[in-house]
């Protein structure tokens, strides 16, 4: 029998439908793989083996009765940012202690309602603040990829590093993730997987631990463009419990993956050619343009002139919202309490011990830019620039159907290589933050490897609520790239 863990989500669902194997067999295969790999990769922070096996058994019974859902029996990993009823959810932070929700996030509830099975909770940067998955309370996630013959441990990207590593290492069929400034697309690009951040409001944020509320959006990381479409289909939908959830129907994303892109116009923004960009990223971008042409698309140069201000804008807006959101974790209303000699010292000690260095840094930045003396100079100005960035996209999309850019400025780097320089770390988001600031859908897909054999990704950005075009273009590029490279299982 084929190694069940190597199957795509689409192939696994088809195999179960044809009774080639059961959900119980598939789930056991993944749990065995996790047992072998997780001590080396640290992708899972909680493994819910008993729950998964029970759910798989129930799933097989439903399928036998002809009551299979769209994701029936599919084992998934869940990022530790999504509240899961009865299973510890900490956002990989210290301040949440052993918090075990008594409720289910809307996104995970949607997945489980469609028949999906949870294998466990996936590691991530603390409160989703990071680009390398090195800020987690539970230690860094290790990428299954290696640089040539080196044994240096590489980052899978962040904040959804556990999700990306688990999918790339075949430790689940797909995973939930979140993207505030690139936290789905950057780890996907680093690990040779596919990740989509949908339009802001496409997926409910209810039950997801907040980082920056106007930027956060849930989405999937999967093995293929089609798999990501299947997962997003179940994750999306209007939710009355979330005031930012859009009251719109969910299209057939999977069907969009098979649509021709002949006659579509794809924009190429000149502003994404940044100083110091490696030649192999430029070459990949040009190759992506040629693939789109070969598929019948027209290429048009466009200008997104405020792109150069996107990164500083993001690192004002996001910390400001984080500072506000994380104020509630004081050891009284929320969070683990560290008793002090009085109320003030209890507050101080609870927050000092509960938050890691990167979270503290962003809280302080956010508090600073929101302070009375600097609000106008920083936060208000950043919001004005954000509006201009959104206007740039609206003007561009009057002329093009989708936009093609690189996903990241480089391949994955080693753990510890950039953690001492916050600015260098923040530069990882240079190609991704614009989509968050404008609330647009963006997908990263693997398209080549660099000289060290590490994955490189392309990014497709679409109009608001036009994920169908994003999937169509991405599927065409995926077919042309024919990226079949997998990391060697050095942990086996």
* Helix residue percentage: 25-40%
Q: List the helices and strands in order.
A: HHEHEHEHEHEEHHEHEHHHHEHHEEH
Structural class: alpha/beta
N-C termini distance = 19 Å
Rg (C-alpha, Å): 21 Å
Largest beta sheet: strand ordering: 4-6-5-10-11-9-7-8
CATH architecture: Alpha-Beta Complex
Count of helices? 16
Mean pLDDT: 95
CATH topology-level name: Amidase signature (AS) enzymes
Uncertain regions spanning at least 5 consecutive residues = none
Sheet having the most strands: 8 strands, mixed
Beta-strand percentage range? 5-15%
Q: Work out the oligomeric state of the chains in this entry.
A: single chain
Number of domains: 1
Key terms:
Amidase signature (AS) enzymes, alpha/beta, single chain, about 15% strand
Question: What do these coordinates show?
Answer:
This protein is an alpha/beta fold and 492 residues long. It has a single domain (1-492), classed as Amidase signature (AS) domain (Amidase signature (AS) enzymes), CATH 3.90.1300.10. 38% of the residues lie in helices and 13% in strands. The protein is built from 16 helices and eleven strands. The strands form two sheets. An eight-stranded mixed sheet has the order 4-6-5-10-11-9-7-8, with helices on both faces. A hairpin with a 5-residue loop joins strand 10 and strand 11 (455-462). Helix 5 runs parallel beside helix 6 and helix 10 crosses helix 13. The chain is globular, with a radius of gyration of 21 Å.
